Fold this sequence. Notes:
Helix content is 6%, strand content 59%.
Amino acid sequence: MNSEEESFRVDSILVLGNKTTEDFVILNEITFNKGELVNNKDLLYNRERVYSLGLFNKVSVKKVEENQKNLIIIEVEESWYIFPLPLLEIKERDYKKLSYGFYLVYKNFRGRNETIFSTVSFGYNPSFGITYINPNLNTEGDYFLRFSSFFSRQNNRSIIAESQTGEKFSFKQIFSSLILGNRIDAFNRLFVNLTFNYVETEKQITNYTLGSERIDRYPQLGLGYEYDKRDLIQFPKQGNYLFLSGNFNGLGINNTNYQTAKMDFRQYFEIYNKIFFKFRTSARITFGEKVPLFDYSLIGADEKVRGNFFKRIEDRNLLSVNSELYYPLINELQLDLSFLPIIPKKLLSYRIAVYIHAFADYGSVFKDFYKSTNSLAGYGFGISFLFLPYNIVRFEMGLNEYSKTEFIFDIGTSF
């Protein structure tokens, strides 16, 4: 048995370096307890789980032997938590659709990993919104809460509606949502979602809204389940993820009564000698006699097919399949720029990594089950630059079914 797989018993756990963050926020992410058997591979996995909180510039989880006892030391370096910064956002992951403004983020509010997030944006889809996230309503982390409220002027995304009107148009949207959930254990979560939607167009568009006078006002009741065993959520290399949700839209109020169901499954693992593979399949299904066009399923906005990155297809339902091989040119490097003047030191420490990757994507939309009305496919390769805990930048070259090339710049991991 190699040293990574050799097990030892945990006699105690100590958290160091967290001046703001409460111990329980970190300990709730650890998958082992005092008295259990673990190995060095488990310690590395748990290090990535703590890093996934997005609160720390550095994380180490190591074993120290004292008086023939195994002490696990979790040491962190906290990052900067308050960001009043200018906003430049790429809407629908299309750099031709830019929003600008400013945002204020207060992460780790009260040291409990709470987040308060407020934005004001102009340009494409101007909006104002506020979000509050509390993943630890109690110190055991059993319950979580998320509240969001947004007002925006949205540009229409529906291809069908645009073909009906013969022109581009926008609509007013007000959205408020409250999510309450139970964290069953380190990997499983259940939640209920209560939402109010308000959608208003400037003129009547057939089937775009279901209510009278160009306006839809309706509640939404949702139920969901999430299983997450990924190591580093920002850029996973092992584990799996499953998300299931069902929403009841309108409940017959204001002539609106339809349902949506979503599924998202992802798998990550090492194939051989630091060559990693990831796979994702997702689906969105609608039920009901009438579904408003603004809520049709769309590939080419949030769901993308690289190689056809800027092409849109639309129908009531969608299926998406993505796969990727990736290999580290730089697996992990801690960059410390604290020698620079004026800038706070917490903003000058980064976890750097560089990966090359090859991908293949497929997306299909359909009205009835198993009857695709349109589909897109693409493949290609690229390079990813990780600047954690802050963000990821990707440069990719995609090819479509006819080997026509396109160049892609995107923020964040592909999935």
